[in-house]
What does this fold into?
Amino acid sequence: MVNRGCLFQSLLFIGIPLAGLMAYFGLNYSGFCFDQMRYLTDEEKIRSAFEGQNSRDRLPIDNLPPEYPHPRYPKHIKYKSFDEYIALYPECCSVNPGGLFYEVPPAKFLDRIFGYDSRDIVVTKFQVRYLDENGSLKTAETRLDNYMANCGQPR
It folds into this structure.
């Protein structure tokens, strides 16, 4: 005969930690940020993606004129802030716009449950500012797709 008290204790010993792990992995999979104990807003995700792109010294330009003497990655003239950029280009950015082919591979399942990739992709039509061969300020649009980690770090 099976001792029901021992069986119940064994189920509790295994079931409670297993339920806790499933809740943790499920929240990670859904994009929950455990550092801040909340979900990030779309604006926070867009701001984080912008800051990551704007901090780079060189950005790719898809439609750079062929007469440009340097490679496709001219020195990027950075924007002062996200607020300046949004004032100039209010329709620049979206989170999971749908209907588009993303230039990033699909997220891996393990990356999702451990919080390295959230379910969101931030698509930015980034206006890259650079100096042409005459020293004149030029602007060119390039599309940048970013996966976001659960707490907003672009990947």
Remarks:
- Residues 4-30 form the longest helix (27 residues).
